[in-house]
Amino acid sequence: MIILVTGANGQLGKSIKSLVEPQKKSYSFVFVTRDQLDLSSPSNIQNYFDTHKFDLIINCAAYTAVDKAENYQEEADMINHIAVKKIAEIAKSNNIKLIHISTDFVFDGLKHKPYSESDACSPLNIYGKTKLEGENAILSIMKFNATIIRTSWLYSEYGNNFVSTIIKLAQKNNNLNIVSDQMGTPTYAKDLGQAILNIIKNEKFNEPNRVTEIYHYSNEGECSWYDFAKEVINISGIKCTISSINSEDYPTAARRSRNTIMSKEKISNEFGLKIVFWKDSLKCCMKNLSTLSLLNKE
Ligand SMILES: NC(=O)c1ccc[n+]([C@@H]2O[C@H](COP(=O)([O-])OP(=O)(O)OC[C@H]3O[C@@H](n4cnc5c(N)ncnc54)[C@H](OP(=O)(O)O)[C@@H]3O)[C@@H](O)[C@H]2O)c1
Fold it and tell me: What is the structure's pLDDT at 298?
């Protein structure tokens, strides 16, 4: 099986790459960065697939700058919707399976229970809207052979994310104000990457003409950004206090959903996945950060 992974320089792309090295023999992975496959032009995407053949595409590339997207709607739409539509058309006509990553921001956050895959979507911001349009393009083009995985609050050892930002800020400040009225679940990108690798080995995934499905994946448990930051500080041992504030006290260009906790029942039942509690995965990531010397404990 020849597998293309887009967004190879992103958090999830790098996490998958770090996990597949030892598995090279059974699958052949091709990781592409923006330089190798720029998704900002459908004709460019077509040209690429005219000369490269794959059995599966894992689309980890996305326009992920949530606040910036409010002012760059066209750019966000191009990567999160138009490019996804083009990839789905190519996948369908060449019988290529597709795994596409989407977001909890397709929900407005007004539900008081965990979101299931069948709940109505109503994004509050441009990023969520463009990601939802990408999902809908796949659903209308690929009745079969596509798998959409919505995830939330992704962090990793790579790039800028909430964990690395909190560590850097805490090293320079005695106190940080963090919002406590937005609830969700962090996702360690390596756990999601491993879940994807387990799924592609699963018999059900490999059934011919498998009906296209949406799944939710995050770590287990729930917390606010405030709880998340406190746990980062707790594990790091950095001396910094975390104070709780409301969303109104931290205005952002893009509106944020108040609750994006998602039920993982469907994905764990269908593929037999064991999902780790978020604090345990956070410890694991921060241990790796510490090894990489990004977390400089004094
Ligand atoms: N991060 C989160 O908290 C979060 C939450 C929910 C869902 N998700 C979803 O999870 C997936 C993975 O997210 P992530 O955190 O790994 O994202 P990320 O670290 O921002 O990586 C996204 C990658 O997409 C690439 N990309 C952007 N524009 C491109 C273009 N025109 N052509 C080709 N590649 C392009 C970027 O390339 P460059 O490196 O060159 O910029 C980057 O490597 C995405 O679908 C995202 O929407 C993320």
Answer: 43
